[in-house]
Amino acid sequence: MNKKITVLKGDGIGPEIVDEALKVLDKIGEKYGHSFEKDYVDIGGASIDKFGVPITDEGLERCKNCDSVLLGAVGGPKWDTIDPLKRPEKALLKVRAELGLFANLRPTKMFPQLKSASPLKDTGIKDGLDLMIVRELTGGIYFGEHKTFEQDGETVATDLMLYSEHEIERIGRVAFETARKRGSKVHSVDKANVLDSSKLWRKVMHKLAEEYSDVEYSDILVDNTAMQLVRNPGQFDVIVTENMFGDILSDEASMLTGSIGMMPSASLSSTTLGMYEPIHGSAPDIAGQNIANPLGTILSAAMMLRYSFDMIEEANDIEKAVNTVLDKGYRTVDIAGKDENVTKVSCSEMGDLVCREIQ
Ligand code: IPM
Ligand code: MG
């Protein structure tokens, strides 16, 4: 198969980690007879520096006209003080909105090999912890009206959290369908004891729960979820939630795995066009040093093969290779912990090691 990938390397460690994922994709192409054509588009600070905007209209078009998008990370202190409407993150939100990427899948998997790197290692979390956060990605407070204005002699600011029934229903369906292929359990996270948008969320989810009666369903409040994730994460299979709750909970959940550097994500639309990116940021403090962990991006590439290209065997191959490399004791610094028996490797060495396991 021939697939066209629009590549958004972005800022900070973005270019380094994306290069490793592309290396792995090429290796897969070689082994299985696919060719992955790449179209490079500037995004974030890199684009601001060149064009004055975080992504150009033309760049956005190229994201729409491909088979899927691979993203590194955007943002950094250099662009923190510019006009908020032009910030690097705006590009990310624009791509999500324009491509209709309403469903963000964030698998949180505990690699048993990395248990010693998890701050929760002594709290009874089980090996093999495996949950999926399904985050709504194109609605809610991220996309409601944002306004700052003067009132009664002081500055006031407001952000609107708005959801319509169809937006809730379509993300709910993704969650229930995902659960059917996994542990058949959905926790829907909301703040229905306070927010109207959450009351509507709950109502729509309850209707779906009746339709998907084979899936075990529970409502859970977001504050309680934050606590339960630390107390007993093994109780969760699929967590479905609105945009901002999902942003916060997925960062929290990532620490169960030992390192946010390990976590991939898929942002899906109603077609096979998706965007794939690690959930971590651009880590400007370690950029350019070849020490970043590329595994979150490599695992995102695996998700691209699975969800956008239906290349299941190829995706499994990458995931198996990552596991083998970890089994053999290779670690980037973020996952090295204090274990003296591991071999510390650079970002590019990690990419090479994964490629070597794909033979
Ligand atoms: C994420 C990030 C983004 C978000 C930022 C960079 C806008 O934190 O993908 O989780 O909040 O969605
Ligand atoms: Mg986030």
Question: What does the model show?
Answer:
A hairpin with a 2-residue loop joins strand 6 and strand 7. The chain is of the alpha/beta class. It has 2 domains: about 1-105 and about 260-359, Isopropylmalate Dehydrogenase (3-Layer(aba) Sandwich); about 120-255, Isopropylmalate Dehydrogenase (3-Layer(aba) Sandwich). It has a 10-stranded mixed sheet, sandwiched between helices. The chain has helices spanning about 15-30, 45-50, 55-65, 90-100, 165-180, 195-210, 220-230, 245-255, 295-305, 310-325, 345-355, and strands at about 1-10, 35-40, 70-75, 105-110, 130-135, 145-150, 155-160, 185-190, 215-220, 240, 265-270, 275-280, 330, 345. It has 11 helices and 14 strands. It is globular, with a radius of gyration of 20 Å. The structure holds 3-isopropylmalic acid (IPM) and magnesium ion. 3-isopropylmalic acid binds near residues 89, 92, 247 and 279.
